[in-house]
Amino acid sequence: MQPLTNMTVLVAEDERSVRMLLRVVLEAAGARVLEADDGIQALRLLELHADVDVLCTDVNMPNLDGPGLVDAARMRRPDLPVVVCSALDLRGHAAPLAGLADAHVQKPFVPSDLVRAISGSYPRPARRDSVAAS
Ligand SMILES: [Mg+2]
After folding, report:
1. pTM of structure
2. For residue 113, what are the domain limits?
3. Which residues of the chain have pLDDT under 70?
4. Which strand (E) or helix (H) includes residue 70?
5. For position 55, which CATH number holds?
């Protein structure tokens, strides 16, 4: 069985070529993919599709960026697993976002790393606020 079979992944990414690559990789692993080109559209899709299992989001996007999207998404779906896919190194800085995400995939990403991060984020582990804040 493919690692992401029966999973619906909402992808929020403003760069079309990256978004297409994410779709291809995730679909090849068995996932159903919904695409948004900014955070606002991603929130709209999240409200329309209660079956979204994982949010995979970029950090820098127009209208509503990754951190804003994650905040808003968590208000609606507190347990929604979030995987951040960004060229930023979230381990060194950007601690608030690193704390919000269940996993981080560094761009440019290796397909197997992305699939592993998505499958590992679901079901979402218990909140690690205390760890993330330290
Ligand atoms: Mg971007």
Report:
1. 0.88
2. 8-122
3. 89-98, 124-134
4. helix 66-76
5. 3.40.50.2300
